[in-house]
């Protein structure tokens, strides 16, 4: 294990403890940013060690769930603060994560995977099933609240919220069972002939159990540092957003981009190695986990939160979501894609980011 990957997460945690709740001068903000990116790179390394030990798709699930659990903790902490605008925080954060994963990560990895080999190849059965789960939970939790009539505004009633929460966690649990037990072969990478690839082909011999456990602990520390330092930097990001004349909601987009950096880099590494299926496992698994874990948690805590929970998307975001899902389905269904397909998904991410800055 490279030495820097051991101390970078610890350094990030120390910097987080030293700067939490404090305003940052310019020089300190630069140092915090450096610590954040060191933690990001270390998280990618440790995620790859774990993936080499447990195999795919379990390796992708570990990283996706770890990031999402910490992200949920950040959302709950911010919502409990009672500041203005927190009623839409969960919706904005989850939607930003959704657009980044299904357009940004998936598009980037198809683009990279096709760049060296002409075509990016993956398993359509597994990828299509994962995307179907994303469509379901996104529709239930982010689109339906806009059109229900039990509450005024884009809110669920308590019973509707409970149904959406139970349905979301049920869909995610069944997806994980399908991915890891019943149909694991649908979620492993394939070669040019469509045959499954061995984990050892990509990672070499599996690391020892001790090395994997050390990496698991350091991965958690690194991800806590990434999310926490993103929160510490948020006032500086807010000032930059104000100076640029962007709406405050754009801050959530920037933070989501930073929080999802470990997954993005890990997925890009898989794609460059020709294992695009691993990249799609990360992208769609993260999208589903972001909704399937966040909404049930907030539903359980909603009686204790001082602000209402507005989950329904506006018309512009619904259009972007529908476009993204339609393009994603057309891209995945054939089991192979060109760089053009990846570029289309990236353009949809660029459109989302641009419209978030210029609504």
From TrEMBL:
It holds the Pfam family Na_Ca_ex. GO terms for molecular function: potassium:proton antiporter activity; sodium:proton antiporter activity. Keywords: Membrane, Transmembrane, Transmembrane helix. Residues 28-180, 215-356 form the Sodium/calcium exchanger membrane region domain. The keyword Membrane applies. Gene3D superfamilies: NCX, central ion-binding region. Its main location: membrane. The chain crosses the membrane at residues 27-46, 58-81, 93-114, 126-147, 159-177, 211-230, 250-270, 282-305, 311-333, 340-357. This is Ionic transporter y4hA.
């Amino acid at each position: 294990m490279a030495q820097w990957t051991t101390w970078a997460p610890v350094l990030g945690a120390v910097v987080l403890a030293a700067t939490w709740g404090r305003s940052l001068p310019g020089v300190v903000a630069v140092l915090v940013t450096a610590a954040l990116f060191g933690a990001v790179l270390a998280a990618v390394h440790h995620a790859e060690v774990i993936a080499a030990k447990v195999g795919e798709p379990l390796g992708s699930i570990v990283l996706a769930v770890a990031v999402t659990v910490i992200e949920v903790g950040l959302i709950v902490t911010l919502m409990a603060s009672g500041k203005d605008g927190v009623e839409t925080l969960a919706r904005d954060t989850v939607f930003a994560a959704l657009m980044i994963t299904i357009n940004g990560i998936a598009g980037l990895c198809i683009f990279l995977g096709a760049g060296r080999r002409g075509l990016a190849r993956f398993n359509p059965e597994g990828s299509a099933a994962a995307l179907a789960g994303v469509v379901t939970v996104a529709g239930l939790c982010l689109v339906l609240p806009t059109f229900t009539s039990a509450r005024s505004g884009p809110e669920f009633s308590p019973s509707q919220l409970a149904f959406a929460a139970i349905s979301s966690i049920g869909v995610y649990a069944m997806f994980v069972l399908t991915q890891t037990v019943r149909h694991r072969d649908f979620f492993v990478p394939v070669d040019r002939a469509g045959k499954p690839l061995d984990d050892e082909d990509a990672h070499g011999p599996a690391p020892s159990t001790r090395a994997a456990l050390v990496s698991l602990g350091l991965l958690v520390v690194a991800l806590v540092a990434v999310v926490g330092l993103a929160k510490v930097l948020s006032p500086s990001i807010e000032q930059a957003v104000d100076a640029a004349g962007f709406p405050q909601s754009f801050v959530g987009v920037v933070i989501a981009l930073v929080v999802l950096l470990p997954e993005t880099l890990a997925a890009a590494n898989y794609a460059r190695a020709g294992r695009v299926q691993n990249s799609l496992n990360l992208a769609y698994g993260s999208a589903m986990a972001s909704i399937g874990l966040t909404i049930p948690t907030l539903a359980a805590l909603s009686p204790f939160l001082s602000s209402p929970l507005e989950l329904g998307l506006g018309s512009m975001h619904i259009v972007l979501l529908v476009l993204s899902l339609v393009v994603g389905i057309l891209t995945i269904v054939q089991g192979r894609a060109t760089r053009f397909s990846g570029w289309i998904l990236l353009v949809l991410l660029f459109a989302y980011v641009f419209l978030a800055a210029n609504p």
